Amino acid sequence: MHFKKYIRYTSVFAFIAVLFSTQKVYAMHIMEGFLPPMWAALWLVVSLPFIWMGIQSIKRITNESANMKMLLGLCGAFAFVLSSLKLPSVTGSCSHPTGVGLSAILFGPAATSILALIVLLFQAILLAHGGLTTLGANVFSMGIAGPITSYLLFRTLNKAGTSKAISVFAAAACGNLVTYIVTSIQLGLAFPGEVGMIAAIGKFMGIFALTQVPLAISEGLLTVVIYNLLTSH
Amino acid sequence: MTQYIIQTKELEFSYPDGTKALNNMSIAFEQGKKIAIIGPNGAGKTTLFLTLNGVHRATGGKIYYHNQPISYGKKELLALRKNVGIVFQDPNIQLFSANVFQEVSFGPINLGMPKAMIKEKVMEALSKTDITYLKDRPTHFLSGGQKKRVSIADILAMEPEVIFLDEPTAFVDPKTSEELMNFFDLLNHEGKTIVLSTHDIDKVYPWADYVFVMKDGTLFAEGVPEEIFQNEKVLCEADLQKPWIIEVYEALLKSKPYLKEFAVPKSKQELFELMEKP
Amino acid sequence: MTQYIIQTKELEFSYPDGTKALNNMSIAFEQGKKIAIIGPNGAGKTTLFLTLNGVHRATGGKIYYHNQPISYGKKELLALRKNVGIVFQDPNIQLFSANVFQEVSFGPINLGMPKAMIKEKVMEALSKTDITYLKDRPTHFLSGGQKKRVSIADILAMEPEVIFLDEPTAFVDPKTSEELMNFFDLLNHEGKTIVLSTHDIDKVYPWADYVFVMKDGTLFAEGVPEEIFQNEKVLCEADLQKPWIIEVYEALLKSKPYLKEFAVPKSKQELFELMEKP
Amino acid sequence: MISIDHYAYMNRLKQIHPMEKFALSMGTLVICMFFKTWLLHFSVIAFMSFLILYYAKIPFKAYFKLMLVPLAFLSVGVLGIAVTITRNPSLLTYGFKVGNWMIGVEKQGFDQAVLTFSRAYASVTCLYFLALTTPMVDVIWILKQMRVPRILTEMMTIIYRFIFVLLETASMMYLSQECRLGYASISKSYHSLGQLVSNLFIKSFQRSQELFTALSTRGYTGSLEVLEEEYVYCSKNIRFIIIAEIFFIGLAILL
Which domains does chain C possess? Predict the structure, then answer.
């Protein structure tokens, strides 16, 4: 059958493609043009109120003291550099940390959403990781959903009296996991196929679990090391 | 026969983005000597150091350590890095631990030494660099000169055979810098090969046994300091200044040409003695 | 009568955490001169500069600009910062924009100049520092020496009357550093008062009209270079070395005491001429 | 250090008005997004690649390497769209059984995968055209023209500049740790990397204070305004952009 041959060629191409792609996946950035226009626009609209709140928040902070602009700027640059570091993963391969949890704990979710917006924009333009049309979707998963989870989890666990190490680990690992789950949801909603959205979401979560679950654990561990060092200084 | 601790043959190194940093470098470091590498910023001095201890992987040519070509196996690499220590120019980049003791113990711990031995090596390195009293001090409250000493102790604690120092006197005041140069002499007397890169020609001239001049990623000239620094052509083409001892010596020869029969003065003292001759 | 551009009386400055950085400093900078401030790291040179341009607020004593005590009102402060420029030691701290043209325009914009004038000032500053060709180059592609020039252009574009340079030759190679010293001469000829802090005594001695020695946040000594650098007591107590020109001159006097009747040589040329005298 | 950034300054189209480049790349990108014909997508890829290689003079090898960057996400993502897991074998045109489940490909999913693949690649070339010919400073300028809140563009200016400062610091720190065998095992790697990151954070904090002081000496009181050079529109380029966009729309409708 004609269609089968088609598929055979495609799978050969896909295999070669994976072989050639030496770059590691930047933790779950949906690439340029991958989402259908309707979904790209929808996620942008969903993110906008959060971004607006973030802008109001940093405007307030920077108006209060003039040096906060420099501090936030350096933090943004720090976040970009952090996400370009190679993180040794527990499985032996390397990947890049998202910095979602660390950033949420250090700067709070409002400032994090703005820093994430800018860092994602720079990653799209300077590194071709993520994209302009998918900026809204990526900001929502990585700059809003993930950090809010981390932040809330960190505060709740802290109030409950859990040890600092466990709170930080849980906040960072879950922030990373939520980012990945939200991305899977975004992909599943956009590409439901004939099996329906729920099943499609499950499928995408299954595919990315392979790389993301170990990465979430690695990032959790690293964030604990960083947090301990920072608080001891 | 001259014993070379490290030797390279037609060494080449390019960064992943294609920038060629070292080109056709054949350089040989004699064991137990005090060696200086001079040349302008961007000549590739730091890159050379990092290539010689295996952190940068040579993209061409060969490197020999004790006449054995180096291999990039994990174990061999660790042994090489242990024996070829690098002290970075800016101590702020090298120091990252909470206190000085922890900082200096980083290398020995990574070498997998037993605990008691680590402590011994650290204390030894601290005492050699005269900073035992800083042991429990946090690294970020130290002065520039103290940080420099800690960054040297960092490397000494690993007991390398050869120490590369990248512009060791660049960030410190003249007094500290003189103390450091004397300290390098001391280390050398204990048998370590010392290689330093520097801009400070006046400091290098009396100190070095041998001088390499680098330019644009290649070895431009080499020789004993007296030769190199009297070679107008080399000095001019490599944008180097003359050490003042040589300048004064040459001015002296103008009025007293007969002083030529004496050796070229290598130190201030020798120069002044020469000046006192009738 | 001598005209002082900036003068302080019993100036004191403590950081918010209580560290006393400047103590009982009475210092006076003569207009139109080339002035050097020397002293070890941590002597308070950078803090002094920042206090003189009003970024640090003096916690005691008085500062006079053109004999008027400075006030910390918004308008006066801006005028002071316009006229008292500071070039920082590390250009990476000072440069905030990735575009050289935009970077240099920052100061003039804050002064509220009209657009056309800003452009003119920027182009003038770039051409004076010889970096017009770097106008559209991103900051992160520049070499250390080029960044240094941009950081100087930053300040020149504001047309200050006095320029403080914090260790301008610390990060650059000897050739660039010589070019910079010549450039400071040029600026001085155009009427600017130049104050630089440095460790490099050999470079300062022939260059400076007047020298201040700082130690532990106080003014330790001052005078013309010939005096300061022959004053054994000051040199010893402030941990300073002698410039080699003076050292050779003193050695010369030992064999030819009659040369004492000539002036102390201030430059290499003067020294060599003296040496050629019978 | 970052290759796209490097070419953004070193290409032949750098001097072109940023708005013109922005209009061409974003206009084409939008057309790619809304039309579902892979032939259009491939003509966009060809067109943009031609501009990038022939007019901007980006070296072929560098461009080829960049074209491989999206493959990692794309291959996994497209696979996810194409492959279906279901209990109902009638859904699949091609598949195999694993236990009670069928893994395979259905016609609609496969078509969507092909479409997504071609659309994504076409969009990426549009993004590359902008990124490879327009320095970030000009991109920020475009955003200013589009009335993006000032606080965002000011932050972008600082962040962009200090990305390079911190990247250099971080890589030097990494090298110095490597010289002292800091990455000899996984657990040591975690420890070393943790120290690197926390130190980098402290450095960033210090730098921000130093930067504030340095900018204050130049009269900073809260606004980071700079003078921007003025660009001149070129009517020839604008005509070219309009013709190209009309061509692509026409192509999309006809196909």
Answer: 4-241 (3.40.50.300), 243-278 (no CATH)
